[in-house]
């Protein structure tokens, strides 16, 4: 059996570099990583409440309030009282928010395409399939 490095040891430098590249792009677009995560979650599926959003993105619901405040002030999301529960807020991405998220994502993807171009077409497709399959595994299954 050929020796290889542990998966985490191989992937951590790649992930660290990809995050650094994303942070640069997001800064150019004037949004934080948490803002991008929130906009992506709201753009990808209709998450209605702040509590549901926090659960979906793996954040503490009290810690995302400042991010939601900034996004609302910038006109990128709307937050309205839930008519069925006045304590809850209903969230929605605005058209400006959708445009900001998609513009940032396009620039992130352009850099990813540049990085993936280092692989042959077959290796690229295999890598993307494997990354999708592994990233879909439940946390508990990976941790054991």
Could you outline the blueprint of secondary structure elements for this entry?
Blueprint: H1 7-28, H2 33-44, H3 50-57, H4 65-73, E1 77-82, E2 85-93, H5 95-116, H6 121-135, H7 139-143
Antiparallel strand pairs: 1-2
Helix pairs in contact: 1-5, 2-5
General description of the model:
It is a single chain. With 144 residues, the chain is mainly α. It has a single domain, classed as Arc Repressor Mutant, subunit A. It contains seven helices and two strands, in the order H-H-H-H-E-E-H-H-H. It has a two-stranded antiparallel ribbon with strand order 1-2. Helix 2 (33-44) packs across helix 5. The radius of gyration is 18 Å and the shape is globular. The mean pLDDT is 94.
């Amino acid at each position: 059996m050929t020796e290889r490095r542990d998966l985490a040891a191989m992937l951590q430098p790649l992930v660290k570099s990809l995050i650094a590249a994303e942070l640069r792009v997001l800064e150019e677009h004037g949004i934080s990583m948490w803002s991008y995560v929130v906009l992506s979650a709201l753009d990808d599926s209709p998450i209605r409440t702040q509590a549901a959003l926090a659960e979906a993105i793996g954040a503490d619901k009290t810690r995302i309030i400042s991010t939601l405040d900034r996004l609302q002030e910038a006109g990128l999301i709307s937050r309205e009282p839930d008519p069925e529960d006045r304590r809850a807020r209903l969230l929605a991405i605005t058209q400006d928010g959708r445009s900001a998220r998609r513009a940032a994502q396009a620039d992130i993807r352009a850099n990813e395409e540049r990085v993936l171009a280092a692989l042959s077409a077959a290796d690229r497709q295999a890598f993307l399939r494997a990354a999708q399959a592994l990233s879909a595994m439940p946390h508990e299954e990976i941790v054991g």
